[in-house]
Specification:
alpha/beta; Aspartate Aminotransferase, domain 1; Aspartate Aminotransferase, domain 2; 2 domains; 7-stranded mixed beta sheet; 19% strand; binds pyridoxal-5'-phosphate
Length: 386
C-alpha cells in the first residue's frame, strides 16, 4: 500500500536511471522521454555540465540564508535580466510561489486588487495561483477562493476591455497555455492587451513557467511577439530539475518589495542556483536557441507528414519544442499506448497530446518518437477505446 496521498494518477513506471532523452525503469524497460519532467529537464536528464556545477557547489556550502550576499543569486539574476530585458529578480522554489510573488508585487505596487487572467490558464495550486487559474476543476472543493480575480477568454479583446477597470492591478497570462491545451494567444490580441493594460495603469504579468527557458525557441515566449511585460515568472526548466523559481520585473517595482515585505527561507538555494547558472549558460545562447527552433520545425514537419492520414487529428499546435497534437478523441488512451511502446508523452487538457522533448533532442530521437506516435494513432484498438 502506498503511503502517499493519491494526488497524482501515477504511471506504472519506476525510474532507476535517466540520461539525456532516455529513462530506465526498475523492470529494465527503457523509455524515450518526451516529457522532460514536464518541461523541466530541458537539457535532458542528468547532463554532465550541470551535475559538475552542482557537485562543485556541494563541496562549498548548501545553504546559509537570504541574510547573506549570495554571489550565485547575483550571477543568475544577471543571466535572467540580460535575457529578458527586465531589471530585478526575486527567487522562489517553485512556479506557484513565483506567481504568488508576482500577484503580491502587482497588488502592492499599484495599490489595486483585481487581477485579470484567461480561461483555461494554469498558474499553480496555492490559494492565489489557484484563484488565478481559469479552470474550475482545479478549484473544486477548496473554496472560497481568494477574491478579485476575473477571467476572460483568450483572444477575446472585447471581454478584456470590459473587465479592465480602475481597480485592475494586472493582466496575467501564458503566451501559450501549457496545461490548458497548448493554446496560443494571437499576436494582435496580446499586443492589444498590453496596450490597454498599460494605458489603464495596470501591469502585464507573463507566466513563462512552462514556455520559458528556451522551450519555444527563444529565451522567453513573449519575445516572439515583442511584448513588454512588467513581470515574468519562471520556474520548471530554470535549473534543469533542481527546485527553483523566480520573478523578473521592472526596476520601477522595487519599492513595493522593500526589505521585510516578501521572502522565502529556501528561495534562491545555492545548489539550485549552481544548476541554474550552468543551465542558463547553455540555453541562453543564440545558436542553441536557433537549434531549438530548427528541431521544433523538424518535429512539426515529420508529424504533419506522418499523421496526414489520421482523420481524428484536428491540428498541430504550439511553438518550438512545445508541441500539441489536438485530437477529436480523448488523448489519455494514446498516451498510455505510447508508454507501452516505450515513448513518454503527456496530455494537455482532455484532447491534446503534449510533446516536451529535451531541447537538445537529436534528429534520430525525433524520428523515433514520430514513428511511435504514428503507430499508436493508427492502431484500431486504441481508437475504439477512446
Ligand atoms: C504555466 C504554469 N504556471 C505555473 C505552474 C506551477 O508551477 P509549480 O508546479 O512549480 O508550482 C505551472 C506548472 O505546471 C505552469 O505550467
Amino acid at each position: 500500500m502506498s503511503h502517499l496521498f493519491p494526488t497524482y494518477a501515477r504511471w506504472d513506471v519506476t525510474p532507476v536511471k535517466a540520461k539525456g532523452a532516455y529513462l530506465t525503469a526498475k523492470d529494465g524497460k527503457e523509455y524515450l522521454d518526451f516529457t522532460s519532467g514536464i518541461s523541466v529537464c530541458n537539457l535532458g536528464h542528468t547532463p554532465d555540465n550541470v551535475k559538475k556545477a552542482v557537485e562543485k557547489q556541494l563541496e562549498k556550502f548548501w545553504h546559509t540564508s537570504n541574510l547573506f550576499q549570495i554571489e550565485l543569486q547575483e550571477n543568475v539574476a544577471k543571466q535572467l535580466t540580460d535575457a529578458s530585458g527586465l531589471d530585478l529578480v526575486f527567487f522562489s522554489n517553485s512556479g506557484a510561489e513565483a506567481n504568488e510573488a508576482a500577484i503580491k508585487l502587482a497588488r502592492k505596487s499599484t495599490g489595486r486588487t483585481k487581477i485579470i487572467t484567461f480561461i483555461d490558464s494554469f498558474h499553480g495550486r496555492t490559494f492565489a495561483t489557484m484563484a488565478a487559474t481559469g479552470q474550475d476543476k482545479i478549484k473544486t472543493g477548496f473554496g472560497p477562493m481568494l477574491e478579485s480575480f476575473e477571467y476572460v477568454r483568450m483572444n477575446d479583446i472585447k471581454a478584456l476591455k470590459a473587465a479592465l477597470d480602475s481597480n485592475t492591478a494586472a493582466v496575467m497570462f501564458e503566451v501559450i497555455q501549457g496545461e490548458g491545451g497548448i493554446n496560443s494567444g494571437d499576436t494582435d490580441f496580446l499586443l492589444e492587451v498590453e496596450k490597454l493594460a498599460h494605458a489603464n495603469g495596470s501591469l502585464v504579468i507573463i507566466d513563462e513557467i512552462q514556455t520559458g527557458i528556451g522551450r519555444t525557441g527563444k529565451a522567453f515566449a513573449f519575445q516572439h511577439i515583442g511584448l513588454d511585460p512588467d513581470i515574468i515568472s519562471v520556474a520548471k526548466g530554470i535549473a534543469n530539475g533542481f527546485p527553483l523559481g523566480a520573478i523578473v520585473g521592472k526596476a520601477a517595482l522595487a519599492d513595493a518589495f522593500s526589505a521585510g515585505s516578501h521572502g522565502s527561507t529556501f528561495g534562491g538555494n545555492p545548489v539550485a542556483l549552481a544548476a541554474a547558472e550552468e543551465t542558463l549558460n547553455t540555453i541562453f545562447n543564440d545558436s542553441f536557441l536557433a537549434e531549438v527552433s530548427a528541431k521544433g520545425d523538424k518535429l512539426n514537419g515529420l508529424l504533419t507528414e506522418a499523421l496526414s492520414n489520421v482523420d481524428f487529428v484536428k491540428q498541430l499546435k504550439g511553438k518550438g519544442l512545445m508541441v500539441g497534437i489536438e485530437l477529436t478523441k480523448e488523448a489519455g488512451p494514446f498516451v498510455a499506448k505510447a508508454r507501452e511502446q516505450g515513448l513518454l508523452i503527456l496530455t494537455a487538457g482532455t484532447h491534446v497530446l503534449r510533446l516536451l522533448p529535451p531541447l537538445n533532442v537529436t534528429d534520430e530521437e525525433i524520428e523515433k518518437a514520430v514513428d511511435t506516435i504514428a503507430t499508436v494513432l493508427q492502431e484500431k484498438a486504441v481508437q475504439q477505446d477512446s
